[in-house]
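Worked Example 4.2. Read the sequence first, then its structure tokens.
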Amino acid sequence: MRLFCYADDTLVVASGGSFGEVAQLAMAGTRLVVGRIQALGLRVSLDKTEALLFHGPRMGPPSGAALVVEGVRISVASSMKYLGLVLDGRWNFEPHFKSLEGRLVRAAGALGKLLPNLGGPCQSVRRLYCGIIRSMALYGAPIWDDALIRRTNRMLIRRPQRVIAVRAARCYRTVSFEAACVLAGTPPWEWEVELIAALYRAKAETKSRASAMNHLKATHNDTWHALRL
């Protein structure tokens, strides 16, 4: 079992060989966490607690699966929102992209009303608006970059980019996705996702090597001091 805490979000992760084993561990761990939080004088709203099972093909939770913590029944759902990302049991992020597409299209449509083809803001302002939608779209990219292998996910993320790119480039609605991106000066987001994910992993690897080196130096210094004694 592992525990992840970020701000006011607490995530309990349990692993096991079967759903029954995982459920027992998750319930025990959640009871412990709730007890520690209550000991601090705080209250946990178990009615808002969500449960999700990560599983492989044909290994989903049994029908009506649920966890029971302090008398509260927590149903095991097919997806769960955590820190702005919609996670699903198969880790393919399709629910995330479906939810994201609607929000991005609405935001792009709202900004598009401020960007008429004739007149309106200058090109720098239009690029700024494109950047706003891009930041919303690429949030958490190093987590879900592999999910863009699925064509349906790529199409879900391309639609809002085309909407804002057409407005930024002052194009007609019939202009293709590729042409609109070129004219607006914004490469396809799936390309940017690959770059962001590669940079993230490179930085994480560098940080890990530096941490290991510092640990080695500390161990060496401790040994040297011991020898001097």
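Now turn to a second chain, presented in exactly the same format:
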Amino acid sequence: MASRKLFALPALIRVTIARSSRPFSVLNRPPPRYEGHVPLNAFERVTLAAGSAVMSLMNPRRGDLIAALGETTATPFFIYRLRDAMLSNPTGRRILRDRPRITSKTMSVTKLRALPENGVGRAYVSWLDREGVSPDTRNSVKYIDDEECAYVMQRYRECHDFYHALTGLPVFVEGEVALKAFEFANTLLPMTGLSVFAITRMKPAERIRFWNTYLPWAVSNGLRSKDIINVYWEEELERDVDDLRNELGIKRPPDLRDTRRSLREHKGVAREKRDMMGGLRAD
């Protein structure tokens, strides 16, 4: 019955259905849909997601594993939701049409350093300089089948450092986890939520600070703010960074570097006092 229905269709549709119904296996992998694309079947996708989740938790500096986790867990639902958020916004639609990329070739750090002191571009390049990173550290997307959705993931990935600059959060584990929690509340990408499990690598005092301060900040600001994927950063470089934060509805969290520095200084003073008291008792 099914075969009779198939051959009752026009020839072009029959060929399309026949091709799509072929079993997907390692030996029968469909052709890539864009440069660098690696099609995966369901088993491969689940295996890669599970493996990259475990390994990236063990070694959070493996950007390739984190990238693979992000791509394999974003499909099929979550990346389409993010793409639809862009399609429903005029600026988001322009970004999808223009397909801008954020690299050292498209965004010269020399020119960024010449921008106004409190501008978005200056805040961005100052953050890059302080943390010792560059715009060229982001992996290319390859495990998302839909070509437009692959660009959406690439755009999210390349804008990540702008989110750091906007919030002031540093790149070490405590800052990254706080930013990932913010991104999860704003984008719903599963990888950003799964990254919160990296709190197991924090010291007890850092975990307490995260639960009491940075997680509440991340959830409230991520839910309240506009979709950050729809910011056309290339057009906002000369804008006052505080003005952009206000428009998006984002409040900066307590400066994590200052907090850690103050605690170290406090511990140093306490240690000196203990040593001094120990010396007096010995006398």
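Notes for the reader: The first helix runs from residue 2 to 7. The two ends are 101 Å apart (CA to CA).
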